[in-house]
Specification:
single chain; alpha+beta; Cytochrome Bc1 Complex, Chain D, domain 2; two-stranded antiparallel sheet; two-stranded antiparallel ribbon; about 10% strand; globular
Length: about 375
């Protein structure tokens, strides 16, 4: 008989012991996240997929089946040509977008949405304390914060909102400072939905030259519907790691020995928060949330905020244990190019070159143990 998986084995489980009110909010946002939009509801005119869950399998992260493209010409961003994101689908009568000639493009896997409430709740000073932009300690690792401007609609009541430079912590290059902006941009770019926050259609006249537009009045989604989904993803708990066997424990020791933990920081503690489950909690994400130079092989030559074309945010490792349960073709790294965790490690370069080499020189049994540890997170 098939057993229902526990919350520890899911991407879409709520934080534990939510109040009745928060459970109601979670359920309402879950419905919004699962919603697949039709043309008569505002889908398009150009888009990548029909709903949030269509890209985030099991309400977690994307797979190689739904990679999307961001593009620019080197350091020159070109919104007049459709940048930042290529929309590969369109409603009838409209042509999908075509990648302009001569651009640098960046395939991206949709990032995980579980655990982002914990990430949001980590104080700025906690994250910045791990930065070492000038490599003052001489270890070859010089992670730095990506400081970005929040969208005008993100008020200073939102973490990451308000005037002035804000700490980026969301997205593959930590180029977004708030969950609200991340969600609004996903609706606008991925699904082609206007909202109270971004009420103007994504309306780039490329492809056949059609004047793009749909018949649904803008904004197509209310601000309250967006906030429901923001609250839902804020309340998603990360899957629990597996029990620490002797092999996993040995792998953990090796993970630290070859200096992987310098960037994949095991945990950070959240600050005070109005939601008790997010307040002063250890977030075992295995990321410093900083951007690092990962070398030319992984470079996309496309800047995001202050992050350069060779820099990427340290990807959190939590959820790897159950990724294969929800994704037939999971892929690893920012673009899914690696078919296994080991392949992903061996593609590390730049600041991670020394750790990659140290891993590669381990005896086979030690490499296996380290991989077992990473895959247990």
């Amino acid at each position: 008989m098939t057993e229902t998986p526990s919350d520890d084995d899911l991407f879409d489980a709520p934080l534990p012991d939510l109040s009745t009110e928060l459970n109601i909010m979670f359920s309402r946002g879950d419905e919004g996240f699962e919603r697949a939009f039709a043309i008569e509801e505002g889908l398009g005119p150009v888009f990548n997929n029909v709903g949030c869950a269509s890209c985030h399998s099991g309400d977690g992260r994307g797979s190689n089946d739904n990679v999307f493209l961001r593009f620019s010409r080197g350091n020159d961003l070109i919104p007049e040509e459709g940048e930042p994101q290529l929309q590969t689908q369109a409603i009838p009568g409209v042509s999908p977008e075509v990648l302009p000639e001569g651009v640098d493009f960046s395939p991206r896997l949709p990032p995980p949405v579980f655990g982002v409430g914990l990430i949001e709740a980590i104080p700025v000073e906690t994250i910045v304390a791990n930065a070492d932009e000038d490599d003052a300690d001489g270890d070859g690792i010089s992670g730095r914060a990506n400081w970005v401007l929040a969208a005008e609609y993100v008020s200073d009541h939102e973490i990451g909102g308000g005037a002035g430079m804000q700490l980026g912590r969301f997205g593959r290059k930590a180029s977004v400072s708030s969950l609200l902006q991340q969600t609004v941009a996903a609706y606008h770019q991925d699904i082609g939905l206007t909202t109270d926050f971004a009420p103007v259609e994504n309306n780039h006249p490329r492809g056949s030259g059609n004047a793009l537009g749909d018949a649904v009045a803008d904004p197509e989604l209310s601000g309250s519907d967006v906030q429901d989904v923001v609250f839902y993803i804020r309340l998603l708990t990360p899957p629990a790691p597996s029990d620490e066997t002797a092999t996993v424990q040995r792998g953990k020791e090796l993970f630290n020995q070859v200096n992987c933990a310098s960037c994949h920081t095991p945990y950070m503690t959240t600050g005070l928060h109005s939601i008790p489950q997010l307040s002063e909690k250890e977030a075992w994400l295995y990321s410093d949330l900083l951007v690092h130079d990962m070398g030319p092989e992984l470079a996309d030559n496309r800047p995001d905020g202050m992050a350069t074309g060779q820099e990427w945010k340290t990807a959190p490792l939590w959820g790897l244990r159950v990724a294969g349960d929800f994704l037939d073709n999971p892929g690893y790294l920012h673009d899914g190019r690696a078919s296994s965790v080991e392949e992903a490690i061996l593609m590390h370069g730049g600041e991670a070159e020394a750790s990659k080499d140290a891993f590669d020189q381990l005896p086979a049994s030690d490499r296996s143990a380290l991989l077992e540890f990473v895959k247990s997170r």
